[in-house]
Amino acid sequence: MSNDREVLLKALEFHGHRCWASVAGVRAGLAALRVLAVQRSAGRQLHAFVEIGEDHGGMCFGDGVQYATGCTLGKGNLEKTPYGKLAVTLIERASNRAVRVSYKPTLAKRIAESAFMVKRAQGIEPDQIPEAEQMELVDLVWNAPESDILTIGEVFHFDREWFPELMGFVPCAVCGELTARAYLRVLGDKQVCIPCSGYGR
């Protein structure tokens, strides 16, 4: 557990502030790794779908998952599914074995009544709240029994064909900016980026 605690603390540093949803994401990500019996993804060995969507207070869950699993936006192995839920499906690409882990509402009342969340509701930024109040909420979610806060599904087969990365960049013939080959468009006899092409995508 001490190693997991180190992952948690590094995840919170990566996230930028201490909050309950990012802790829930770390716990969900670590649980998914354990169930699939896989290591954190250094490359693209794993793929994650986080169901957080956009524009709500629990999106921090995504950063917790991202740090715990190693699935990141930059590696292209993290995708958002817009359901507004605190859930992740983690897939091992080599076998297409997958598991879905979701966060339960068990602690919702205690979280809402915490000093941290009361201050957040007043518009106070997370990093302006005393560290002791931040850590009180972090520890509430971190120390809760896994069965109280997570629903861990059965391992299942995820039906998807994985395509290799397309390597290489080419300067756009109009603006000169480097553009990944897959995103070049043909305009007359020139290879151009999407904004210069006039196409929507």
Task: Note down, in words, how this protein is organized.
Helix 3 links the parallel strand 1 and strand 2. The longest helix has 17 residues. The chain has 201 residues and is α+β, with helices and mostly antiparallel strands. The chain is globular and about 65 Å long. It folds into 2 domains: 156 residues, 60s Ribosomal Protein L30, Chain: A (2-Layer Sandwich); 36 residues, 2-Layer Sandwich (Wheat Germ Agglutinin (Isolectin 2), domain 1). The chain is 37% helix and 19% strand.
Which characteristics define this entry?
201 residues; alpha+beta; 60s Ribosomal Protein L30, Chain: A; Wheat Germ Agglutinin (Isolectin 2), domain 1; two-stranded antiparallel ribbon; 8 helices; 37% helix; globular
The tally of domains stands at 2
Count of DSSP helices?
Answer: 8
- CATH homologous superfamily identity of the largest domain: Tubulin/FtsZ, C-terminal domain
Distance between the termini: 46 Å
Residue windows where pLDDT falls under 50 for at least 5 positions: none
Overall geometry: globular
**SSE topology string:** HHEHEEEHHHHEEEEEEH
- What characterizes the major β-sheet? 6 strands, mixed
What portion of residues is helical? 25-40%
| CATH topology heading of the largest domain | 60s Ribosomal Protein L30, Chain: A
Q: How many individual β-strands?
A: 10
Which CATH class of the largest domain applies here? Alpha Beta
Radius of gyration: 20 Å
Mean pLDDT, as a whole number? 94
CATH architecture of the largest domain: 2-Layer Sandwich
> Structural class of the helices, strands and pairings?
alpha+beta
State which percent range the strand residues make up.
15-25%
